[in-house]
Amino acid sequence: MKTAISLDDLQKKRGCNWFLYHSMAAAVSVGTIRMIDGDIVEASNITRQIFYKEADVDHTKK
Question: Is the pLDDT of residue 10 over 70?
Answer without folding.
Answer: no
